[in-house]
Write a structure and sequence with these properties.
It contains 11 helices and 6 strands. It has 450 residues and is of the alpha+beta class. The longest helix has 69 residues, at 110-178. It starts with a helix and ends in a 7-residue tail after the last strand.
Amino acid sequence: MTFARIYFRIVVSSFFSLAVMISSAQALSLLDAYEAALENDPLFRAAVHENEAGQQTEKIGRAGLLPNLSITHTDSESTGTRQFSGQPQTPLNFHSQVSALSLRQPIINMEAAAGYRQGKAQANSSRARFTGQSQELVIRLSEAYFAALLAQHQVGLAQSQLDSLTELKRVNEQMLLKGEGTTTDVLETQSRHALAEAVLIEAQDEMEVAQLRLESMIGLEVTQLHHLSDFFQAEMVHLPDFEDWRALALDRNAVLVTQRHALQSSKEEIRRSYAGHTPRVDLVASLSRNKSASFVTSNQNVELATIGVEVNVPLYAGGRVMATTDQAKANFARAEAELDAAVDNVLVELRRQYQLALSSVKRIKSLELAVKSAKLLVIATEKSIQGGIRINLDLLDAQQQLFNSQINLAEAKYNFLLAYLRLNFTAGTLVLDDLQRVAAFFSPENPLSD
């Protein structure tokens, strides 16, 4: 992500936050919620800082290949005596100052070279992990947003059902007073009415929890959300063949990319450990200025410049080098096994989301037909009751069937959109355009208010 894009998102997020504070009544869109989550979601903010820390490993590794320059200065007072054979003691007091500028530049250092390559692999791994965490933010936000929407939808339908039962209860009671109804009808309606009240209370509790979960991510109070438009059709979303998704996932899935860089880091750790057997050659240079550096050179000022090559050949370290190398090899084998396991898990999840997306299309069609049939059934049952063919209980059952079908349809639509986003996430192709494509299916108008 370039600095310009980061700056643009910060500006947009700041402007959005100001706009929400000015007009809190405006419905919060999915994209607005995403921009707010970029700024306020605690998990994403932690991921940002984790990535910042991870990028420093490359610089730390590079430092081992670059010159090491240091300066030291010593200022001291020395007090003592000096005595030659057969002569009396003489005091030996002097003030000394020693300043030195030292330079060390690695020429041959296999351990530092492997450390640099390892740091680069770790930085790439951190970058890939952050890419996955950025994509995961889209999934977590969409889950929270859709959950809040579904909870609001359930409250709306539950309230509508309760209103219908309230009206039916009133009609049944009036008919009983006129001698046209039965006590059984009144009791049945009262029972369903009480259950509907309980369902509404439960739905309101779930809505509050869902909204709090969304608010914790975006740092804003949730009042109104954009709702899924009636024109939405699952067929509008194009789904390529599974083999295309599979090829993308193997190449771009964030978990697999992260694990491959971790495997490369493990390989460099083997080289770094084995480098304990190899010689090290450094260019060393120093510039020193000594004033009475010792009792031998008291009252003398010395300036000295040296340059040379230092060779360090390891001979024996108690078996430490072999032990650390074997340990690194074992860790590399473990990383290979973890990569294989990650590939299997990714492909299983990819297949699961792909099948869920495909089956959701069929499920939505079936539930749309079920809702349409349930609405007609309610109307037909009301007419049949007037004609004396059906009874009050049939109408109550028809209304409950309509309520359940509407809830299941709404849930199926949200599950399809989530499956589409998760499919892209698992394939490693999830970008802002995908979220914008999903957000285009939502509008500020609430279909339940029509």
